[in-house]
Structure to design on (117 residues):
């Protein structure tokens, strides 16, 4: 745990390596000190169609990271995690119009998992 889900504007693919973005988010989660590296899962989803305020997608760019983890972390731990992920993305020095990070608690009671070994 956690699941780091990166949503980003597809137009960023022209100026930013998405593999680097994924690695950056992964490193940020690790830098928080809350997880072992083998427990962090990171993936990215591009969006071709979107609007930010009054700006159409052709002239805007964004990265939004939702870090989903089992409930039980303190506000301080979640703040440390979101700050570490945000800082790691900013260190890419990419021209991204908006970068946001949120930490989302998942209910332990309803979380299910199956892993092939």
């Amino acid at each position: 745990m956690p699941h780091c889900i990166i949503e980003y504007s597809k137009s960023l693919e022209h100026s930013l390596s998405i593999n680097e973005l994924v690695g950056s988010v992964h490193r940020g989660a690790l830098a928080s000190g809350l997880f072992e590296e083998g427990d962090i899962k990171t993936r990215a989803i591009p969006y071709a169609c979107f609007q930010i305020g009054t700006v159409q997608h052709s002239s805007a760019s964004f990265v939004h990271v939702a870090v989903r983890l089992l409930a039980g972390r303190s506000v301080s731990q979640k703040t440390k995690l979101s700050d570490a992920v945000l800082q790691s993305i900013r260190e890419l020095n990419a021209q991204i119009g908006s970068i946001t990070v949120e930490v989302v608690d998942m209910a332990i009671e309803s979380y299910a998992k199956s892993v092939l070994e």
